[in-house]
Design goal:
Structural class: mainly alpha
Distance between the termini: 47 Å
Order of helices and strands: HHHHHHHH
Strand content: under 5%
Helix content: 55-70%
Radius of gyration: 18 Å
Shape: globular
Low-confidence stretches: 132-144
Number of domains: 1
Number of strands: 0
Length: 144
């Protein structure tokens, strides 16, 4: 359930436009699950807070006292834009975190890369948390 809420928030932040598909039409949940699985706890807490602020922040941006998921599409777009340029720094930072995570997931999608005429990213080997990183031996194989 939490994964779907975060995915919806990122889709609202990265909608489809013209010839570019957005996260509203692309399967971003597998990549999001991988990000959440490997992310540090502080990052996850920040992301969850940013999602909560996005969901319950329309009263700060478009002056509607309703959750973001009840907004019409045009008002939802105004809300996202309002968060990105809000006068309160923490609101802008929450939107920056959503844009960063959403941009990573959006930019790796083969459909997006094809539309931008960029070579597809090879499959992730899943070695980030394996080997030296888990043992804490950051300098294995290097001279000090």
């Amino acid at each position: 359930m939490l994964l779907r809420v975060i995915a919806w928030t990122l889709a609202a932040t990265f909608p489809s436009t013209g010839e570019l598909p957005g996260l509203d039409k692309l399967p971003g949940e597998p990549q999001l699950a991988r990000v959440l699985k490997t992310a540090p706890h502080g990052f996850k807490i920040g992301l969850y807070g940013a999602v909560l602020l996005f969901l319950f922040g329309p009263v700060l941006t478009v002056w509607w006292p309703v959750p973001a998921f009840l907004l019409p599409r045009a008002t939802l777009d105004r809300h996202a834009d309002g968060m990105a340029g809000h006068r309160i720094y923490l609101v802008r930072q929450a939107m920056l975190l959503l844009k960063t995570v959403g941009g990573l997931i959006w930019g790796i999608q083969p459909e997006v890369r094809a539309a931008l005429q960029i070579k597809a990213v090879p499959e992730d080997p899943g070695t980030w948390r394996a080997g030296d990183m888990d043992t804490g031996d950051m300098g294995a194989g290097t001279s000090t």
